[in-house]
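Changelog note: in this version the structure field was regenerated for every chain. One regenerated record is shown below for reference.
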Amino acid sequence: MAHTAPTHGPAGSAGQRDINPWAASGIIFAGVLLLVDGVLGVIKGISGIASDDVYAHVRNYTFMFDVTSWGWIHLVLGIVLGIVGWGVLKGAVWARATGVVLASISLIINFVWLPYQPIWALVSIAIDGFVIWALCTETSKAVI
């Protein structure tokens, strides 16, 4: 009797579903992007804390904070994003949900921060959007 490998049926049949390779690979990439976004956040934070003339001075802006305040916000958020990114790469269950929440918060913060550094903010917004998509799409754990 020959042994044959099990085949995957259509999504939803007999408890099996097709795995989207983009999403499965996206989880690992999302973990790496969370680490990158964390490093960018730390750099943005240190830049804002160290010198007030690094970022544009915005006047009459609804969400106006001192540049040093923005620096501390980005520094703390960057450290936490880096830790969560590491957790996603290790396959920690807590890290996936936390990653979605923190990427959402980071996306909102970078949108509000947009007038201060538009390019950095847009890059971070794009990273956060992909991270949210990747972590919400696939349910398998990524382990390195």
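Spot check on this record: The chain is about 65% helix and 0% strand. The chain has one domain: 36-137.
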